[in-house]
Amino acid sequence: MKKYKRIFTVVLDSLGIGAMPDSEDYGDRDVDTLGHIAEFRDKFTIPNLQKLGMANLKKLKQVAPVEHPAACFAALRETSNGKDTMTGHWEMMGIHTTKPFITFTDHGFPPELIRELEQKTGHKVIGNKASSGTEILDELAEEEIATGHMIVYTSADSVLQICGNEETFGLEELYRCCKIAREITMKDEWRVGRVIARPYIGKKKGSFVRTANRHDYALKPTGPTVLTALKDAQYDVISVGKINDIFVGEGITESNRSKSSVHGMEQTIEIAERSFKGLCFTNLVDFDALWGHRRNPEGYACEIEKFDEKLGVLMTVLNDDDLLIITADHGNDPTYTGTDHTREKVPFLAWSPSFTHGGPLPEADTFAVIGATIADNFGVEMPKNTIGYSLLDKLS
């Protein structure tokens, strides 16, 4: 029999809890997203995460462990080769990625790629370098508005991003150009994980604001995932935030776009208040996009505190036959050098109102314990060639 009728898996995008054993191979030394945020703050208020046992799992300067943690908790190591969003999420659902996605951080995209993109879209490309989204707009948006040129940029991630002003460039034209870019970058030598449409509004430097109409064009998962197995078995698989984009709709039965991480939690709470059978899979991207990449530990800390408030609400509307899993997909230490993700362990907090007690679980060697646990709960077989093992019998 199924142990839980519904499972809610919430990904705090980039909330790592300390360096992986191989982090230095990825250029990351002494990284610790959550630990360094706690050290940065004189006061850090996360009572609901504290109650679940986050400070028991991870020593935090400003948060004390509790005597009786409510959740079962463990640190998870990533077995795949990478430290990006897609690699982390795919591994959660059973995919072992051995070949990392290509990045173009140092020199921008090659001339051959840009030339083909210009020919097929009809727009001259400006930018073509690594930059933050706000900096590239201040530098080039006025030129784009005046000329109809197209801003293309990348980051430390495996992404090709295209900016478009919603009033002058137009959303549909931006999406058309991104679809062309996605087709071009399917070539092995240019294989990026995601092409991202970055719409914005405003007319003058200092007034540009990115809108919620972002759209990600990701590569399809390299094989079936736990999401596919759940959908095939007639379970609901409800996505919140960019989950649908990460999996390109594979295995998703309902998709909900979020305007922010707070909005994503509000959507998750609304979903919890209605009836369904299966998985609600939520990604909260602001931790990563707004604060991690911009190396803003204060903003990151405030975002965690806002999440903690909404977490308290979510916990009150869950039923005894619900399971909540809180985790992350990689690190992004806002106190570290550069702007890249950081190779870190991630938290695994599992809680249900029916739990009589919580406590520590052994450190796991893969994020895929999450998907395997979900599959085990619903009695579906892990798809062929997936990885992971279930922790279901260890959850009390």
Please, could you describe this protein's structure?
By secondary structure, the protein is an alpha/beta fold. Helices cover 32% and strands 18% of the residues. The chain contains 13 helices and 14 strands. It has an 8-stranded mixed beta sheet, sandwiched between helices. A hairpin with a 4-residue loop joins strand 4 (150-154) and strand 5. Helix 8 runs parallel beside helix 13, helix 10 (261-272) packs parallel to helix 12 and helix 11 (286-292) runs antiparallel to helix 12. It starts with 5 loop residues before the first strand and ends in an 18-residue tail after the last helix. The mean pLDDT is 95.
